[in-house]
Amino acid sequence: MDFRVLGPVEVVGDDGAPLDIGPYQQRAVLALCMIAAPRPVPPSRMIDVLWDEEPPPGAVNTVQAYVSKLRKVFEPGRRREVPPAILVSRPGGYALDIPPQALDLARARGHAEEGRRRAAAGDQRGAGEEFRLALAEWRGEPLADFAGTAWADEEIAHLTEFRLTLEEDLAEADLALGLGEALTGGLARLVAAHPFRERLRVLSAHALYQAGRQADALAVLAEGRRLLVEDLGLDPDPRSREMERRILAQDPALAPRVRAAESRLVGRETEAGALDLAIAEDGHRVVLLAGEPGIGKTSLAEQAARTAADRGHRVVWGRCWDGTGAPPFWPWTQAVQELAGPGGPARLAGGGRFQLYEAFAALLNEHGRVLVVLDDLQWADASSLRLLEFLATTRLCPELTVVATYRDTGVRPGGPLEHALGALARLPHVRRLSLRGLGEGEIREYLGRAGADPGRAAEMARLTAGNPFFLGEVLELGESPGALSDVVRGRLAGLPPETEQVLTAAALLGRDAATDILLRVVELPEERVLDILDAAVGARLLAEGDGLTCRFVHDIVRDVLREALPPLRRRRLHARIAEVLEERSGTRLTEIAHHYREGILSPRMTGKAIGYTRRAAAQATAQFAHEDAVEHLQQAIELIDRLPRSDDALRCDLLLDLAEAQAAAGMSTAARASLEAAAVIAEELGDDSRLARAALGLSDQIYLSMYEEVTDVERLAERIDRALASGLAGDSPWRARLLAAAAFIGSTGRPVGRSRELAAQAVRLARRTGDDGTLSRALIVQELLLRAGDDHDLRRAVIAEIVDIGERTGDLATEWIGRETAYVELVARGETEGAERALAWLRENADRLRLPSMISLAAWQAAVHAYLTGRSGDALAAAEESGAVYPEGALGRGDAHLRRETFRFLALRAGGRPAEALDLAEEILRARPEQRPWRILRCLALIDAGRADRARAGFAELSRDGFAGILPDLAYRFVADALSEICARLGDVAAGRVLYGHLTPGAGRLLGWSVADLCLTRLALLDGDGERAALHLRAAGEFVRRAGLRVYEPALEELEKECSAPE
């Protein structure tokens, strides 16, 4: 738990969520204990604070009750006979018995003390970092929820003074490094807020002097002197007078040169120069450092970090977790904690995935110029890589620089790192640097610096291939090290006999092995283990640490120890680690799951591995780390075959969970495959409940686009109907979603009126459930089915409600869908200017959401807009962009391809190339015979090619039963325009009259891309009704000119001639 008073009083649990610490007075009791910790607070003091001078008769009992309730919050599972371990009773009162690192005030004081110690020792850079860490603990005004009470105001004053002193200490450390120019603004604001604080004025004047503003520096001191004399009748203290004298004398010590950079790395001048440039330049910068183990990636990153710190950047590190036990966003969480203190990650909780990403960006942006170093990206979890992609492109943190290292030998083909590197490579502000081995000349310099014989450079090059880590080993041993495993074994040979046991356990625990966990795993006496760790540091196997964790001098050493473990021993050790972690903290789900998977020794442990892996997936989903959830669930499914008996029901459930995670991660093709596999199992089991969930697919409305490319519509509709008929869903959100899915999926095979009625039922039921997600999904389906109808008022109300739900719940994806439908409505009404603004919003926010379906759809709408306004070249380019969003084989790519080919067909027709247009339509229909709109285009192409008989036969099929099969598509793209043209050119008066009736409700609007009145003009002329045709033509002309639909100007002119021609 983390206890916090430097802001509103709160306690955060191990899962990052705030605990319920009760009402005002109960929180006041806790606040008093936190301020005093570790000293006890007498009950009499608590009573004075809670009731001033007039405590009630039962005040002591009330305080005891508050303490008892707080103890239950902190130790919910504690039995009555077990003494409390956190809020304890001591002589003199109640006290918090917690380590200093669990209280923000204690951490701040510790950093402040360490900073002053370092400053006194001359380490100003280290001092500054400590002061920054202390200040990062503040989350606002301390004890904010008790401000205005006498006891709290006194404490707030003390804590405010503590913070101001820290600000001064930090400024003093930075001024000693010559960083005054970067401090002037912040110090000026502090001086304005505290005009009588002389130390601040002296520091502000010093900073101004370092910035080359001597006159301003003297003015700040003069203003301070005037205020003191006139308002307080006091003279300035000696520090102010001394600073004024030194400024006037231009004392060179006031502006020290920033210390020269530490000795630059040998053979890395080009790479170091690129890093220096990235740090110096304004704007986003990402530098990727690639190379084999030991090549010097981390050393070069450390050098870049020192350079950035010298230039006033905040520098934070995120080290990736070795292995598959990484918690979601682990390296970023470390960076945020270093930047904003332990409370930083809690600021990122809540909201959705994209709100989380933006919260990360906003937090980074708060700290100005920040360098984040991500080390060992080959071990990063997939969600951390997605966040890196977002931060590399967002404009929310324009002063962020990222340096990321990774082993180029550790990039798995098709894995998340390869995908991330590919995405980053396309950005102009991202640079990739590959580190090579040192050349012979560089090795000569390396040896000279190390005091070794430069004449051995050629020999060293042969032995080490210029790898700096191996060069160091050769110099240490004085001879060729042979295999690195031999080196490690050689160093172990002179150490205590249990050293290998301890270090191999540490190697499996990960990059930073917690000492307390290690002690439990190896089951040796504590003093013995600590002696072994000290000896390993002396043997250059472990690095010097803080005692709480142990770290190897290089990951290569840890790799050697792990690889040397026999398989069965490795498995037993993983199992032991899993048990210890489970006993110590059941919340480290990802780690526990990893070690149980690697340590399976029995069927019972297989079950545990599946259980913890599934819980880890749920935790990742709750943290919007959907890619991590996918990986966990895939691992769990693989483990099912290791159970004593195959469990098909469990496999089905895991597949359903996997499909949801895949869809949330944008893996729509994989999600569809998982759903289909789950549906097959559910059918074999005869399990209607699981079949219903599989048929429904995904519960979130933004993935309805999944069904666009489901070719086996009938089978899917049957599964949904079976789920509805089973009655399992009852009167629930689930049933409402099934009704919406039935309305949408079944719309191709039933009368449109029936589908609209199902959608209306879904909306009514969703309203009764009170579930916004279910209601928005039902409304989205209802809107789609209303597009070809005449109830425009209802449709506009539905659109407004979808947008409202998205805005009210903070669900940007739902809001986006609502605004996309609103855009379609603006286009339909011919409100081009408003539509252009809406389209700009859609494109911008599709990029924010980073969902391929939405990015593609926004590009497609831009293509349609360009087409309608007569910019065919732009239309084709935007259509190409729409298709390029999807990777090869991804669900959605096929629809994007069809959209692009639609424009190619139209261009071929417009260019007088009917044979090619016909070939294209035939090709599309061979691959996708279910595509009714392309059957309409084929009819047009057949007429253009002079093959009217074939066109007539195809059109008879389309117009059968009064166009019953085509009615849902009348408001789809070009359908109405194409059908009216076919009727006119084939002279099919009967079909034209039927179509006229269907299109009449759309008069004065666009139906898809079709100007309804133009279509009605053609059909009226076909029917021989010139008067009606003239009325429609006048309305069409007004609409086309008002909306700027230049694509229809030729058709308009042609129909005007036809209407004015004598009979």
UniProtKB/TrEMBL annotation:
Annotated ranges, domain OmpR/PhoB-type: 1-98
Domain of life: Bacteria
DNA-binding region: 1-98
Cited Gene3D superfamilies: P-loop containing nucleotide triphosphate hydrolases (3.40.50.300), Tetratricopeptide repeat domain (1.25.40.10), Winged helix-like DNA-binding domain superfamily/Winged helix DNA-binding domain (1.10.10.10)
MF GO annotations: DNA binding
Matching CDD domains: AAA, BTAD
A GO biological-process term: phosphorelay signal transduction system
Keyword terms: DNA-binding, Transcription, Transcription regulation
Chain ranges passing through the membrane: none
InterPro entries registered for this protein in UniProt: AAA+_ATPase (IPR003593), AAA_16 (IPR041664), AfsR-DnrI-RedD_regulator (IPR051677), BTAD (IPR005158), OmpR/PhoB-type_DNA-bd (IPR001867), P-loop_NTPase (IPR027417), Sig_transdc_resp-reg_C-effctor (IPR016032), TPR-like_helical_dom_sf (IPR011990)
Entry's family note: Belongs to the AfsR/DnrI/RedD regulatory family.
Name listed for the protein in its UniProt record: ATPase AAA
Organism of provenance: Planobispora siamensis
